[in-house]
Inverse folding.
């Protein structure tokens, strides 16, 4: 090496050849540098709106509850509750009172590692809205989503992220699948048993599931569903108008015992007025 190369960093023959080869590869069609790959991985993935809507719709999240954020809407002095609520929903924010703050903060900060959650309270206190907002957050976080053709639905990290349903709709969907579903296709109960997170709304709501589908059948399917999720340690977010202590009388000791352990015996209570009638 010449002294000028050592002193001023001029390229040697080997380094000049390496640089020329690098420039040649960079000029090839479809070339992607390692630095650009790292930059791409660091960039947040923003789902196109149609894809985002398809994800939420397939997961069963009610469209009316889309677009909420984990932010509070401040109440103006003298503002009626109903007006405050409409203004908050229009801006995608929550009305937080003393009676629903515990549930709001718990669901907002919840992660799957904390296990299942049981939320109870009167009708119209925002329980479904909380779980729908958490579902949307988990479904639209900046990760890549791949289309899986086996069951026709979006999958994340190898499994369906969220399945949002209520007890009556699940029973009716299962009954319809038993009568009209294609052989070998995934049933609603199977999907609810295997998804990463199940949101079960309006739990312990006694209704006739569907003609030709007895309540005993619905109870058996529900017990199977919870047994599967209990055995696999998969979380469930449950909303109900009845407290956790009422599960045993409504669904039997086996279901109540499993739910009690899955939720750690904790029942998050919401105590607010019905905002729909405000």
């Amino acid at each position: 090496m010449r002294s000028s190369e050592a002193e001023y960093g001029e390229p040697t023959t080997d380094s000049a050849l390496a640089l020329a080869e690098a420039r040649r590869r960079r000029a090839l069609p479809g070339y992607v540098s390692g630095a650009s790959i790292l930059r791409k991985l660091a960039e947040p993935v923003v789902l196109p709106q149609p894809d985002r809507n398809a994800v939420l719709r397939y997961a069963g999240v009610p469209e009316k509850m889309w677009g909420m954020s984990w932010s509070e809407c401040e109440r103006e002095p003298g503002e009626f509750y109903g007006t405050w609520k409409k203004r908050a929903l229009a801006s995608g924010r929550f009305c937080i009172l003393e009676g629903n703050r515990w549930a709001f903060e718990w669901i907002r900060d919840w992660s799957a590692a904390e296990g299942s959650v049981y939320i109870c309270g009167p009708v119209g206190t925002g329980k479904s809205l909380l779980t729908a907002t958490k579902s949307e957050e988990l479904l639209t976080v900046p990760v890549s989503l791949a289309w899986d053709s086996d069951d026709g639905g979006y999958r994340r990290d190898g499994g369906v992220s969220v399945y949002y349903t209520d007890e009556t709709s699940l029973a009716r969907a299962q009954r319809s699948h038993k009568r009209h579903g294609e052989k070998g296709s995934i049933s609603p109960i199977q999907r609810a048993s295997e998804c990463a997170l199940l949101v079960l709304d309006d739990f312990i709501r006694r209704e006739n599931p569907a003609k030709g589908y007895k309540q005993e059948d619905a109870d058996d399917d529900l017990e199977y569903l919870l047994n599967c999720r209990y055995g696999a340690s998969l979380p469930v977010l449950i909303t109900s108008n009845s407290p956790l202590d009422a599960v045993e009388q409504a669904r039997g000791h086996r279901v109540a015992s499993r739910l009690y352990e899955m939720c750690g015996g904790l029942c998050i209570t919401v105590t607010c007025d019905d905002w729909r009638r405000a």
Notes: Residues 120 and 243 are 6 Å apart (CA to CA). The chain has two domains: 1-43, 47-277. The two ends are 85 Å apart (CA to CA).
